[in-house]
């Protein structure tokens, strides 16, 4: 899938929000500046969040417990070892997770996640690829 600009990434995020359920995990992979946080913010906006949406790069976890479903936006860029993941307490069943830099947590983390990967494409666009688990069948691609 080609995402032509930032507005298209936000729109895709908003569409994803309509399909998001408690317990879901969406992982976002790709190089710095490719638009992972833009897509995450689109999901949060699509769920109705109106306030600030700071990047969780330094806090690691930014909770949005007022949303339905509640969402934790997670950025693992600064994680130095997968063993540190346990300290973050991300094993939450009634909350959806949006996880940037999931590869820092190790390959076995979140086996049932919707795995989205972004890469730079021509003319400022982004190429998105998805690995879709059974739990997302019928919800991906978003309508």
UniProtKB/TrEMBL annotation:
This chain belongs to the protein called: tRNA threonylcarbamoyladenosine biosynthesis protein TsaE
Q: Which NCBIfam families match?
A: T6A_YjeE
**Record GO cellular component, one term:** cytoplasm
Its main localization is cytoplasm
Where does this polypeptide localize?
A: Cytoplasm
State the UniProt keywords alphabetically: ATP-binding, Cytoplasm, Magnesium, Metal-binding, Nucleotide-binding, Transferase, tRNA processing
Identify the SUPFAM superfamilies for this entry: P-loop containing nucleoside triphosphate hydrolases
Recorded hits in Pfam families, A to Z, give: TsaE
- Taxonomic source organism: Sphingomonas sinipercae
A GO molecular function assigned to this protein is: ATP binding
Family in the record: Belongs to the TsaE family.
| Gene giving rise to this polypeptide | tsaE
GO terms in the biological process aspect are:
tRNA threonylcarbamoyladenosine modification
- The answer to whether UniProt assigns keyword Cytoplasm to this entry is yes
């Amino acid at each position: 899938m080609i995402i032509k600009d930032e507005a298209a990434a936000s729109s895709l995020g908003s569409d994803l929000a309509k399909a998001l359920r408690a317990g879901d995990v969406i992982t976002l992979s790709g190089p710095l500046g490719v638009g992972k946080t833009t897509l995450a913010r689109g999901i949060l906006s699509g769920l109705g969040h109106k306030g600030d949406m700071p990047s969780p790069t330094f806090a690691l976890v930014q909770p949005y417990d007022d949303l339905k479903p509640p969402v934790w936006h997670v950025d693992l860029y600064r994680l130095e070892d997968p063993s540190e993941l346990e300290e973050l307490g991300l094993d939450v069943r009634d909350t959806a997770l949006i996880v940037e830099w999931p590869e820092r947590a190790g390959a076995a983390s979140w086996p049932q996640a919707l795995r989205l990967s972004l890469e730079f494409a021509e003319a400022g666009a982004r190429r998105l690829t998805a690995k879709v688990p059974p739990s997302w069948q019928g919800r991906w691609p978003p309508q």
